Amino acid sequence: MIRRFTAVTVSWQFLFALTVGPAFAAGDAERGAQLYESRCTGCHSLDANRVGPMHRGVYGRKAGTVAGFSYSPAVKNSTIVWDEATLDRWLANPQELIPGQRMGFRVALPEDRADIVAYLRRESGK
């Protein structure tokens, strides 16, 4: 009986870890600000469109809707709303999330993505 309880407990812990894995771990917005500055500001700004669209308010916004930015048809026609999961997937591999988009940059480490997402969420007032 104890073995069965232990196996069930381990199974539940494993399933829980899969559902809240590193991509959804709470990020560090302060570290995310530093990562954003070093990795994202070559193309993006919080408050101005550049090579990429501005990011203030990105969290909770439908993809492809910033006024004054010329999005690819793929992004404009997507149904994505930016949240932890979609931003994580985007930063991990934009082309996989929205085939035909134009961003050619990836963030490899899940903890870096979580921190950048936490920063974008904070700067979006969410």
Q: Helices and strands in order, then pairings?
A:
Elements: H1 2-19, H2 29-39, H3 73-76, H4 84-92, H5 94-97, H6 110-123
Describe this entry's structure for a reader.
- The protein is an all-alpha fold and 126 residues long.
- It has a single domain, classed as Cytochrome Bc1 Complex, Chain D, domain 2 (Orthogonal Bundle).
- It is built from 6 helices and no strands.
- Helix 2 packs across helix 6 and helix 4 (84-92) crosses helix 6 (110-123).
- Residues 5-23 have low confidence and may be disordered.
Quick structural gist:
The chain has 126 residues and is mainly α. It is built from six helices and no strands.
Characteristic key phrases:
globular, 126 residues, Cytochrome Bc1 Complex, Chain D, domain 2, mainly alpha, single chain
